[in-house]
Structure prediction request, 526 residues.
Amino acid sequence: MQQPNKINVLTRPSLAEAAALIEKAFAQRRTLIVAGTCSVHYVGRASSTLEPGERILIVKSDGSLLVHRPVGYEPVNWQPSGSIFHVQVKDSGLEVHGVRQKPRENVKVTFSEVLLASALALDDSGEFSLFASEDDMHRAILLKPDLLEEGFKPISWEKKVEPGFVDVYGEDKNGKLVIVEVKRKTATKEAALQLAKYIEPIKAKVNREVRAVLVAPSLGKDVQRLLATLGLEFKALDPKTCAEVLRRTENSKLESFFKPATQ
Amino acid sequence: MQQPNKINVLTRPSLAEAAALIEKAFAQRRTLIVAGTCSVHYVGRASSTLEPGERILIVKSDGSLLVHRPVGYEPVNWQPSGSIFHVQVKDSGLEVHGVRQKPRENVKVTFSEVLLASALALDDSGEFSLFASEDDMHRAILLKPDLLEEGFKPISWEKKVEPGFVDVYGEDKNGKLVIVEVKRKTATKEAALQLAKYIEPIKAKVNREVRAVLVAPSLGKDVQRLLATLGLEFKALDPKTCAEVLRRTENSKLESFFKPATQ
Prediction:
């Protein structure tokens, strides 16, 4: 029952043997794994150099590329899908060369020694489902307030305001008070009416302008009109985006690239 | 000259054989590669489920984890370093279980079939160097204006202003004109004086407040005082951050997680 060509593996091959396996993998659009001593050169948007060391190269069937060092969850080099690859053995070593047209990018991985080379025909149609609760959505907005809007500054959350609790509560860039009600599914008329009810006592108490924003992945039928009538706003935000923000914000160095440095 | 334990490889092992290799890899802090049919369950900040399919699991020596599908450069599941792993064979299959304490996160990869299992002792101390030119830094600020400051809106760049060219030119969130001079190395007194010279003719021409910002990875000795004297500002920004922004902004879906949805 086994597919004979599902997997090819070479352990400690010569560079010529590895090149033959790699060339076949590219021709057959297999997923390629190569581990060994390599250096990497990239030129495109900016440029980079990685001096020799032992790493794992993965080239996927869609032409995306990853180079992984033995530590860290982030690849040291990567290319999105769409690169065209070729391989050749030169005096300098076994060269895996990827070229992408738009934007123009070149990546060259040069192996001086190969420990493992494997070509795999992988079949994967399994669905990925990411789940975030309303509470997760609150936390995502607190961690990344511009999910709501630029310049939003959270003050408090799950604040008791008769007759209940306000989900998130803050100030906009113009100093107006903002009351946020979060729903993880399509917002109904009931959600709009609930929010309208919550802001009345707040409006009565504070001596400043109050905005109320209903946050949900989408709006139900006729809810947009009701919101307008009630003087409420809507911001589209889905639980999946929030889940990703939660996962990445605390864990990821990537995050720092997307925030202005606060030095 | 070969290290005998540098690499272990099993092709199409039984689940019990694969589990033995995996257990040893965890005990010896090797880099582990397993390809085969698996499902993935994650619970922590939000939660996710990945239905069965053929993928590549990588667990690195620092306890970081990646699950890669056969397409796309992004992992479908990942964990940063610091997880503790164990493996066991159950009726449901071969379970690789990673637990992280802070934040509490659990990831479970269950293999029903293993095509390839390899444990590698990888040695990598090669330096990674990323290079961006001053022109790359301009482009990064144009692509991601909040690298300069929140609310900055670029209007033009490399604009001819006697006696030369202004690098980037825009408006701040309060409507003031902002002139930006970019240096990719430590900014000198000469850079500060050059910027002061450039803004004079602009101030003379426009009927509004003008700010001038010197952007560089750092300031030379006494340059901060000179800037203050000249009424200029400083923003720390390094070429590496700009290079990453350039690479990620156009290529990466990640980006969308860090921008407010514009729906």
User: Anything to note?
Assistant: DSSP finds six helices and 14 strands in chain B.
